[in-house]
Hints:
This protein has a domain at 59-92 and 103-208. It has helices at 3-18, 22-34, 36-58, 61-67, 71-91, 111-123, 127-135, 146-176, 182-205. By secondary structure, the protein is mainly alpha-helical. Helix 2 (22-34) crosses helix 8 and helix 3 (36-58) packs antiparallel against helix 8 (146-176). The model is unreliable at 97-105 (pLDDT under 50).
Amino acid sequence: MAxxxxxLFAATVFFISGSPGPNMLHVMSRSVQFGLRxxxxxMAGCFLAVVSLLSASALGLTALLTAxxxxxxxxxxxxxxxxxxxxxxxWTSPVSDVDAGTGRGDAEITSARIFRTAFGVGISNPKxxxxxxxxxxQFIDANRPELPQFAIMVLTFGVIEISWFFVYALGxxxxxxxxxxxxxxxxxxxxxxxxxxxxxxxxxLSRS
Length: 208
């Protein structure tokens, strides 16, 4: 991969990755709920999911699933159902009188559970496989070995993605300072839950 091609790829990914989506919303909401330190586990879960989807697409999983009738439909429905469930959980999440984001609430939620939930958010969108299959090959130099080029792109995408996670997590800390009152926490939970539900409905209604 030529250096100028890599720069073009990185610049494109920077804007794609920074756009609001389920991963970024989840990281931001976890930062509000748990604070920055515990949100690192959510970032790690979403990061692993993104890298896994990109790697799977580069290794040909997208082509395999496309060849199986109904495979993407099943994955799409499952992914939409998971996002709708997260929306319900956020909508009905209890509030407390403690400051949001201090980490004192929800102490029973382990770091492993935070990681697993975040991984589920990241891995639940099968359209990411289709996106990767359409996007990554555009930057491949046919005169050079493909696997190292795919590895460079996956690594670049992952670094940019996790950098945006920190940006959104810091944004969540800013929001947390405004959520010291229970009624504001309820409003945040409703908005977050509604957005997750909208993502799920959008995925459910998608046919591509």
